[in-house]
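[09:14] KT: can someone run the structure on this one? pasting the chain below
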Amino acid sequence: MSFPNDYPALLSELDTWQARARTRHPGVIPCRAGCSACCHGPFDISVADALLVRDAVRSLPPADRADIVVRARAQIDRMREAEPSLAPPWDVAILGERRFDALSEMLASEPCPALDSAGQCRIYEHRPMICRLMGLGVRTVAGQVIENGCPIQDDFPAYRRLEPQVFDMDSWDVAQESHLASAAFELFGTEARSGYETTVAGAVLLDRL
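[09:31] RB: done, structure tokens below
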């Protein structure tokens, strides 16, 4: 089984959602290329995103690829200092939400390994789901609210007051399930690992197991 070619198309639905919000609220949403405020601290990504990140780093020029690997190793080492049980293949789901949240808070200033020295994302076109969701609050069709997690929103009053934007997250999650299963098969040889979660650093190091 191979990685589903239409997973990027599923991710692009989030890009479209963001673009429509910008059209409805011109000049309000400050997110832009080069703003990396939300690209710090380890954050969990799905097995489908882990495969996407791994393959994106593989395709980079050798110097960029090598730099990202060095940064990823350093971040994993710091994570393991706090959580020695974290081991290849870097499945953070085993930590549980409370321990992973504490780890993320402790390393909140750590830049994502994919950032270059200027704060630009070197895998931007292949960035994970959470990176595309970040920057807006979400209101699901069922009425559930996911608050905007932008760490600098207090600097932009109109942005901070912007209401959550409607997105059919429930349907998106259902559509994602097949991608999780096939990515798990691609990485681990079994769909049973579809619940695997790691970080960008962990995904980068999947090639180094």
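[09:33] KT: thanks! The longest strand covers residues 45-46.
[09:34] RB: yep, looked fine to me
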